Structure formats: structure tokens, C-alpha cells
Amino acid sequence: MGESGMLFYGTYEHNLDEKQRLTIPSKIRGKVQGTILYVSKGFEGSLEMRTETEFQKWSNQILSLSSFNKDTRMLTREVIANTHEVELDKSGRINIPANLLKLANINKSVFILGMGDRIEIWDSQTFNNYQKANENKLEEISEKIYQGINN
Asked: What is the reported pTM?
């Protein structure tokens, strides 16, 4: 969540500029206090962006897991080692490091998704493919998750 306690939500389509900067939508910027954000390798080919407060919570959860577990070490390497601190400039833009752009196959056009406590950044084509592959699964997945909560 933004430091103000408000959830990030909505889907926005934007383009990287010629200097590989991404303008963060004003509705998202309005929920961020300060100028420091953290961009990490995400899941399904996306990047994830968190405020400093949310990044601390999230990274503490990962780092509290046992480093004796092989899967924990892999998760830590893939996510924490692929996290960069970025700063919002006066125009509301961030500069996403080249290695993260490459990991997410981002060239120019992106979707920015508010996901409650975080923001996902997707290459437009990758996101369109993800949506197409999953368009008929919402009901099935919702039912599984809901049943798991009630058992």
C-alpha cells in the first residue's frame, strides 16, 4: 500500500521515453510519500515496484526464511538481488535499470497495474499474452482459493 494506507489499483498503459524513463501515473504517485521506490524482478515476466515501507515488509518476509533451504536461497537471489532503488524525478518518472528491462523483455510500451500493496510493470505484449492465456480461468481459480480459505 502507499504510505498513506491507500491501495494501488487500476491498469494504465504508458511508454518508456527515449532515455528509458517511465512516467508513473498521477493516481499512483499521489499515494507515494517521498521519492524512493524499489523495483524488483517479479513473477510471470513482470517487474514489481514497492514503496520503501512495503519493500521493507516484503523483503523482511523473504529474509526471515531459512537460508538452509535451497528454494529460499533461489528466491532471495532472483528477487532481492534483482531489486533496484529508483527515484521519482520532479516529472514523476523513474529510470528502470537496463538489467530489469531485459529481464521483463520491456522495450517501450508497458502496462502498469495497481496490485494493492505493489505495482506490477509488464511489457505490453507479454501482458496481452498472459491475459489471453488466462482469460477463462478467473472463476475456477477464485473457487479454489475461496474453498482453501474456508477449509
From this structure: 0.89
Return the pLDDT at 135. Answer: 83
How far is it, in rounded angstroms, from Cα 51 to Cα 147? 32
pLDDT in tens, 56-83: 999 999 989 988 999 999 999 989 999 9
Smallest CA-to-CA distance from 83 within 99, 72, 69, 70 is with 99
Task: Concatenate the DSSP letters of all residues of 83-148 into one string.
Answer: EEEEE--TTSEEE--HHHHHHTT-SSEEEEEEEESSEEEEEHHHHHHHHHHHTT-HHHHHHHHHHH
Of 8, 9, 47, 13, nearest in space to 128 by CA: 13
Q: In one letter, which amino acid is 143? A: E
